Amino acid sequence: MRELVYYIAVSIDGHIAAPDGAFDRFLMEGDHAPQLTEEFADAIPGVLLDAMGVRAPLTRFDTVIMGWDTYTLDPSNPNPYPHLRQIVASSREREVHEGIEVTSDPVARVRESKAEDGAGIYLCGGGGLAGTLIEEIDRLVLKRNPLAFGDGTPLFGHAPYRPVRFDPVGVRVFGSGVVVEEYVRAPEEAA
């Protein structure tokens, strides 16, 4: 069965974006960047892959799910992950680039995707969608940046209180100050 992986940059106080949705304060350069770029190339938008002259290996992910705000982050790029099957979660009917799927039921859609053969499913964002999907997330890969935002978009949006346990399986500390924390859903939490 495929995993739903929430791979995301986060501040030390648990925010994935500033109050206005910006995420440009996260460290893009440093000793963490080359390793994560190689390890998670499938999670890099197509425009950046092209600029770097890199091809996504499609070994880690072959599908991405994202919320509407994440999908429309760059209006000039209506096809952000052309190398992946793209699913956009929205409560309303929306127009998207040809070949991109819109779902109003991301939980059911993720469950269907997890039952299919293939590589992992990349949960790209945002926090509200992650909160909706928290019980479907199998793995968290948090790129914890050495910044405190104070306010902004929480890692799991404003999901209702329901503790879900994840067990730590790895921590990597980089000279840049970025700490990559990896967790898997605790066995008793698995659906």
Automatic annotation (TrEMBL):
It holds the Pfam family RibD_C. It comes from the Bacteria. InterPro entries: DHFR-like_dom_sf, RibDG_C, Riboflavin_Biosynth_HTPR. Residues 4-180 form the Bacterial bifunctional deaminase-reductase C-terminal domain. SUPFAM superfamilies: Dihydrofolate reductase-like. Gene3D superfamilies: Dihydrofolate Reductase, subunit A (3.40.430.10). This is Dihydrofolate reductase family protein. It comes from Nocardiopsis alba. The lineage of its organism: Bacteria, Bacillati, Actinomycetota, Actinomycetes, Streptosporangiales.
